[in-house]
Amino acid sequence: MHDIRAVVDREFREVNALIIEQLESDVDMVENIGHYIVEAGGKRLRPVLALLTASALGTCTPRHICFAAVIEFIHTATLLHDDVVDLSELRRGRPTANAAFGNAPSVLVGDFLYTRAFQLMVSLDDMPLLAQMADTTNAIAAGEVLQLALAGNPDTTEAQYMDVITRKTAVLFAAASRGAARLHDGDGALQQRLYDFGLNLGIAFQMVDDLLDYEGDAATMGKNVGDDLGEGKPTLPLIHVLRTGNEAQRRVVRDAIAGRDASALGAVVAAVNDCGSLAYTRARAELHRDHALAALDGLKDGAALEALLTLAHRSVDRNS
Fold it and tell me: What residue range is the signal peptide (predicted)?
């Protein structure tokens, strides 16, 4: 991500400075947990997407800087809540906030970050954009509830899986790129094209995340390989085995999902490899990457557009 971020390096640093500024609170625990998770780093993919989109359409204004911080606050809040729900212990190579501070503080600081995001949104004084972000945040929350409802269910369909990842991951990517276009007073057609770009980018990104849970390396990924299996998440590689595998392979995967059994990881990895399920998942991700690339047709050539194209390719071609 370093070479991609370099295109908007000054703006990216301004976003980080605004995030730190907006974490100020007279409640010490808010600042402690907020700084802990923000300073853990990560790709900062979503705010970078907003900045690159703004640059590809002209220039990044102070309003784009504020909007990018909104996107990151919403994303960070979802991470805090997700880790509590999933009982996760490792993120970005170090203990999760809930492991370090406890579940209750993590949930409440997540709430603080959500509300801080909407305070910033109000300062932009753009009601249609505020409405879009309210709808986006609601969709994310609904996606998380849907994922929780499907956990441990080996009868989950690919359509249900797509519904989950579209809501819980892809809509925030889409909001980042569409919102940047709106702040440039882009017309409805342009906003829709950039929404389509972000949505397909987010879907491809999540699909690769899901396959890396069965072929990735914990040190590289910054999380424990097999976490999804232990949480009973019926992700696309597993759904593909259940649809195409033989009886023994289907039984292994079905029992692992239903039992939320991370100890079955070895047998499940063998099944997803033997059934070509990782290759299937990657091919589906590449299809959405191609849809994302197509949505950028017609944008003005330049460093920002080149970075967006590279970002789309790297959403699939990565190991973390």
Answer: none
